[in-house]
Amino acid sequence: MTEVGTARKRKEDGRLITGRTQWTDNLQLPGMLHVAFLRSPMAHARISRVDVSGALGRPGVIAAFSGQDFAAEQGSLPCAWPVTEDIVIPDHPPMAFEEVRYVGEAVACVIATDRYKAADALEAIEIDYEPLEPVLDMEEALTDASPKVHAAGNKSFTWKFAQGDIDAAFADAPVVIDRTYIQQRLIPTAMEPRAVVAQTDGDMFTLHSATQIPHVLRVMLAVVTGIPEHKLRVIAPDVGGGFGSKLQVTAEEVLALLIARRLGKPVKWTESRSEGNLTVHHGRDQIQHIQLAATQDGVIKGLKVDLLADMGAYLMLVTPGIPLLGAFMYNGIYKMDALDFTCTGVFTTKMPTDAYRGAGRPEATYAIERAMDELAVEIGIDPLEARRRNWIRHEEFPYTTIAGLTYDSGNYEAATDKALALFGYDKLRVEQADRRERNDAVQLGIGISTYTEMCGLAPSRVLGSLRYGAGGWEHAQVRLLPTGKAEVITGTSPHGQGHETAWSQIAADALGVPFEDVTVIHGDTMTAPKGMDTYGSRSLVVGGVAVRKASERLVDKARQLAAHMMECSPDDLDFANGAFTVKGTETAKTIQEVAFAGFASHNLPDGAEYDLDASATIDPENFSYPHGTHLCAVEVDTETGFVKIRSYVAVDDVGHVINPLIVEGQVHGGIAQGIAQALYEEAVYDAEGNLLTTTMADYLLPSAADLPDFVTDRTETPATSNPLGVKGVGEAGTIASTPAVVNAIVDALRPRGVRDVQMPCTPERVWRALQ
Amino acid sequence: MIPASFDYIRPVSIDEAAHVLGNAGDEAKVLAGGQSLLPLLRLRLAYPTTLVDVGRLEELRGIRDEGDHLFIGAMTTHDEVMRAGAIREHAPLLALAAATVADPAVRHRGTFGGSLAHGDPAGDLPAVARALDAQFVIRSMEGERSVGAADFFVDYLETALGPGDLLVGVRVPKLGQGWGFHYEKFRRTAQAWAIVAVAAAVRRDNGVIQEARVGLTNMGTTPVRATAVENAVRGAAVDNGGLREAANEADDGTEPPSDLHAKPDYRRHLARVLTFRALTLATPTPPPA
Ligand SMILES: Cc1cc2nc3c(=O)[nH]c(=O)nc-3n(C[C@H](O)[C@H](O)[C@H](O)COP(=O)(O)OP(=O)(O)OC[C@H]3O[C@@H](n4cnc5c(N)ncnc54)[C@H](O)[C@@H]3O)c2cc1C
User: Fold this and answer.
1) What is the mean pLDDT of chain A?
2) Which of A299, A689, B7, B148 could be a cystine partner for A134, CB 3.0 to 4.6 Å?
3) Which residues of B touch A762 (CB under 8 A)?
4) Does a structural domain hold residue A88?
């Protein structure tokens, strides 16, 4: 039996679920002090005076600082993705000292002997603000009359991408679908809030942070703070979720280091949930104008997309790149002759946006999948039929899309057929017709989403051509210990994905050792020094492949030693189930025996070294393209506007599956998060630029009680671009589900003249759409 | 939770609690289950100087049958209210409403008395207490007094409880035979507060509504009694549209709040729809002939 493909329970879950582990906030260091930040209550204002002296006399207070105190050394928070040559990247001081540009921006801090005293003393800090006009609406922000977020204006960049002859595609097109969709602003809500502990020891610095990106963070912090990279160790201990929000270089991380340096004491900061809602980078927030030209038969000719993307007040680590990740996905699984994409990044006086589960691809998928339904209605065919007429057929793979990506494999027909059977599509259509006929108060709607996405970020060359600051490789090292146990050192940085389990499965198979005999080491730049971390559904497709390759290299080394031990040629050895066997004989050495023989080194080949570890760095040759068909049935109470999801079927194709349980978990969580965008979540700012959704009573998340039992299944079309045949699964559910739900709602209400309901489709919005 | 600092006292008797509260001044607060008070402290929206924790006062706990009414101790938890046999028998509307409060964790900590004392019109129990004409038993250093539900809820988060007052419990009259009950709560997620909810008790005789009591949650600064509905429905025949007509009076005289989840006009509409549903579901079905 192989480990790969087995539904192993996750080995890390015991400690994660009980919390008996190293969450950053659990860390206690001798003499540790606590930081509390005072945050701007104004969306936009000039800071005319800061007086922290009042805080200094408060009980337990060790120090208090204003932005001015850090002005000389704090640098600017980095943006690693300058998407165009002429992009405007404003200075982004970790602590504001001249002007504040969003509510929640840090303006001062107190360091005290405990958290409570630090928070109390904030109240004694005096700040005078000269209010400036907030900038809250993207379209207004681009007018000449608008107040300016930055002196350089409110436009950060315009990025264009055109393929094929778009004018020809639209000229005389008998059918043009022209829609505008709004991607509301979302707040990533990881279970573990952000937390930082910074300490100094001589000229060495150690930063513990609840981050997804210890390796990237180390590089970036070295650049921002001037602490030499080799003097800075970054540790991501167990991290409780991120969804992209911890793919960041945050003000608090920089400031904690500066404070620790200044005071020579370890300092901790853990955000409260409300502080997090204000200052964790937000997601989405785009206005999408999509136009689709098609023939009378519903065959797509071309697609134009014009996007406004809210950057918020500053550009953070990959802020401007997020909408661009979607640029290549607007064509989805469909063939067409031309694609024209323009995105303008706009500054507003709100929290900056950045990566959030799916990052660009959910937006693209939403727009095209909504538009496909509109196309079907326009020409009077079933929405599935509209998709069939346009999708890439399975025999056409590998297929180079209009966006220039080569989809290596896929089978949209198979996934769709399976989903339809599980869903009972035809029966539901009959019930829908019946309810319409009866004018039932509860109407039934059916939503379809046939999605694909690009993940496994990414070929370094491609990232370079998109002006991204770093590469897309991943690294692994595998060490065979003297007793035959193995350590896998990975550059991925799990924060809930189960890498310890999945990497163990991959290594166990490759090395022929038991699953239990593998330990996975991660998230510490000292013990796992090389990596690109975890985001963009990249870890398995790149990092998992590196584990496999490093394991194979290790087996090759062991083979040399085994051959020497058994006095034969390495080519005469078979390796299976953890043993090297001389072909055609019973003579064998287990890998554990070889491991110890290497350790003892009594009998190595002449000139050989004891060397039973191996590394691999994988730079993917292509993205990977999971796909699937999601079907959603909703019941809409037309009297109240309440939407109930009645059934949900997801058939995903994520290629070969390493661990079905983990895949299932990712799909479930992903669907829930996509449904949450469709129905519940929205960050709301008022007319003064105050965030209104600072608690979970206002920023609504669904729980299990609000969601149906998901029916999930898979087709398995292996990726051909990596030796494991795997595709990513971390974001697929989120990318697929949002349009499935909204399509279902609109489908339910279309006979009553509803063409769109803005997300989140709250009962009130649905009800108003019906009035 | 990072609240401002406060003193903490845990009295061992109602007498001591009344005494402590009487001497602690305006800024003392009773701490019951903490499910409303702690969020306020966490957000630093409340700065009590002293918390008087009545969590260990067994005298405040439990349900007693006192003949024509039930006495429910203030510290009885939502979970106990929703399960208690006496409540299910004599005041099932309370159990139905308590079962919709938040989630099991909140229901095991949050208390009946705390929920009423907090005076949040979005809470589920206040409207029921209004509908059932509950009597509030209050202790202070001056002694004990009793206040009817109509006078207890004064304004948003404001009740007849003053500084120094301890809510000891609530007397809920038994309604007797022939009544049916329903609590219709409309919310966006299973654990969320009500956008609007309707508590209805209906007595039917011979296909005709004899009497109804209707309380509205979150339709004003206090829980509201929908008297226009109660009047309109009296004498209505069960199956000829009378309930719907009566329900259309539900928002009469209300001043519903506006928030992220609903604007007032939508709340008014909901009140009418939900009242019809609540009346319909509360109306007892006649025994089979
Ligand atoms: C996540 C969450 C969701 C919730 N959802 C709902 C919901 O859907 N519906 C709902 O109805 N409620 C909801 N609640 C509130 C819950 O019902 C609380 O239990 C209730 O509001 C307060 O009860 P408590 O015992 O926790 O009181 P506390 O929080 O301890 O006190 C509340 C207030 O009442 C005062 N007080 C308490 N007891 C007395 C007393 N005996 N005498 C005088 N004053 C007193 C306190 O001083 C304080 O001002 C929710 C709470 C949470 C945390």
Assistant:
1) 97
2) A689
3) 188, 261
4) yes
Instruction: Look at strands A338-347 and A300-312 and give their pairing.
Output: parallel
Average pLDDT, chain B: 95
A260 and A300 part of one domain? no
Q: Can you give the pLDDT at residue A719?
A: 97
Position B288 confidence tier, pLDDT thresholds 50, 70, 90: low
Closest by CA position to A631, among listed A414, A449, A362, A411: A449
Closest CA to B261 of A766, A755, A43: A766
Q: Is the CB of B223 under 6 A from ligand 1?
A: no
- Closest atom of ligand 1 relative to the B126 alpha carbon: 11
DSSP characters over A490-531: ES---SSS-HHHHHHHHHHHHHT--GGGEEEE-SBTTTS---
CB-based contact A336:A167 (threshold 8 Å): no
A317 with A352, same domain?
yes
Q: Is the CB of B30 under 6 A from ligand 1?
A: yes
Q: Distance of CA A553 to CAs A530, A540, A557, A720, Å? A: 18, 18, 6, 21
Please provide the distance, in angstroms rounded to a whole number, between the alpha carbons at the two ends of chain B: 59
Pair A426, A512 in one domain:
no
Say whether both A70 and A197 belong to one domain.
Answer: yes
- Domains along the sequence of chain B with CATH: 7-53 (3.30.43.10), 62-173 (3.30.465.10), 179-282 (3.30.390.50)
Using CB atoms within 10 A of its CB, is residue B8 exposed (0-12), middle (13-18) or buried (19+)?
exposed
Whether pLDDT at A591 is above 70: yes
**Structure tokens that stand for B212 in this block:** 């109804």
Judged against a pLDDT cut of 70, whether residue A1 lies above it is answered with no
Same domain for A299 and A332?
Answer: yes
Containing structural domain, residue A477: 473-618
Q: What is the CATH number of the domain that holds A96?
A: 3.90.1170.50
Q: Check residue B125 and give its pLDDT.
A: 98
Residues A615-644 have a mean pLDDT of 98
Using the beta-carbon criterion (under 8 Å), do A767 and B266 form an inter-chain contact? yes
Bridge partners, residue A490, by sequence:
A476
Domain termination site, one of A618, A648, A671: A618
Residue owning the nearest CA to atom 40 of ligand 1: B167
Q: How far A705 CA lies from chain B's nearest CA (Å)?
A: 6
Query: With a 6 A CB cut-off, is B18 part of the ligand 1 pocket?
Result: no
Q: What is the pLDDT of residues A115-169, one digit of tens each?
A: 999 999 999 999 999 999 999 999 999 999 999 999 999 999 999 999 999 999 9
| 3-state secondary structure at position A185 | strand
What pLDDT score was predicted for residue B207? Answer: 85
Atom of ligand 1 nearest to the CA of B46: 49
Is the pLDDT at B260 greater than 80, yes or no?
A: yes
**Chain A to chain B, count of Cβ pairs less than 8 Å apart?**
54
In a domain, A379, yes or no: yes
Residue A3 lies in a domain: no
Number of structural domains chain A divides into: 3
CA pair distance A244, A283, nearest whole angstrom: 9
**ipTM score for this prediction:** 0.96
In angstroms, rounded to a whole number, what is the distance separating the alpha carbons of residues A364 and A343?
Answer: 12
Q: Among B97, B56, B74, which residue's Cα sits nearest to residue B170?
A: B74
Residue A432 maps to which CATH number?
3.30.365.10
Asked which of A588, A618, A648 is the last residue of a domain, the reply is: A618
The answer to whether B2 contacts A680, with C-beta atoms less than 8 Å apart, is no
Structure confidence at residue A368 (pLDDT): 98
- State how far residue B73 is from chain A, nearest Cα, in angstroms: 28
DSSP letter for A394, please. G
Torsion of CA B233, B234, B239, B244, to 10 degrees: 0
Residues of A in contact with B107 (CB under 8 A): none
Reported pTM: 0.97
The average pLDDT across A669-695 equals: 98
Chain B residues with CB inside 8 Å of A274's CB? Answer: 43
